[in-house]
Amino acid sequence: MTFARKFKPQSLAPRRTSANARDALACIEKNTPLGDLLQRAENNLLVQQAIDLSLNQNGLQKAIGLVKAGGLSDETGQLTLLVSNAAIATRISQKAPSILLKLQEQGYPARSLAIKQAPGGLGIPAPNKVQSTEKPPVFPSSAEKSWSKLMNQLDESSPLRIAVEKLLKNREKG
């Protein structure tokens, strides 16, 4: 069997929305409150795409998933950006003029940026905490005896004694 017989170009054609989906969208557009909500959701999606493109053009590709559009005020032209942590907020504020220029080039009427750290409940996941890859030191029995002897010689309230106790507690026996 040849490739031409297996390949069916109509399977790759874009599919049309079903009649039920078209009816539902028409109903939503006619219903004013839902139509406005749908329009705002579409606008927020477009603003988010513009922000992602602007970040990419300014060398901040790694920040794309950590910056979300908070809203664009039509009256003041202020675009609010929600970021996941203070380090990203600082970097975005350093690049704010360039980001703003790229957004204006895309046709958005943004005149200023407000950068806010988003609480975890806004869908921006908190960055994963880095787990330590260091393993506790391996202690041969002679080292354990030496540390224990040193610990017994130290004063009870000594910070060095507390550190040695922690060291002996978290050791791996060798």
Instruction: Note the overall shape.
Output: elongated
Number of helices: 7
Instruction: Indicate the mean pLDDT.
Output: 77
Strands across the major sheet, in which order?
A: 1-2-3
Instruction: Please mark out the parts with pLDDT under 50 across 5 or more consecutive residues, or reply none.
Output: 7-13
Short synopsis of the structure:
The protein has helices at residues 3-6, 19-30, 32-57, 86-94, 96-105, 141-153, 159-169; strands at 67-72, 78-83, 112-117, 138-139, 172-173.
Describe the fold and architecture.
The protein is an alpha/beta fold and 174 residues long. The protein contains 7 helices and 5 strands, in the order H-H-H-E-E-H-H-E-E-H-H-E. It has helices at 3-6, 19-30, 32-57, 86-94, 96-105, 141-153, 159-169, and strands at 67-72, 78-83, 112-117, 138-139, 172-173. Strands 1-2-3 form a 3-stranded mixed sheet. It has a two-stranded parallel ribbon with strand order 4-5. Strand 1 (67-72) and strand 2 form a beta hairpin. Helix 3 packs across helix 5 (96-105) and helix 6 runs antiparallel to helix 7 (159-169). The longest helix has 26 residues, at 32-57.
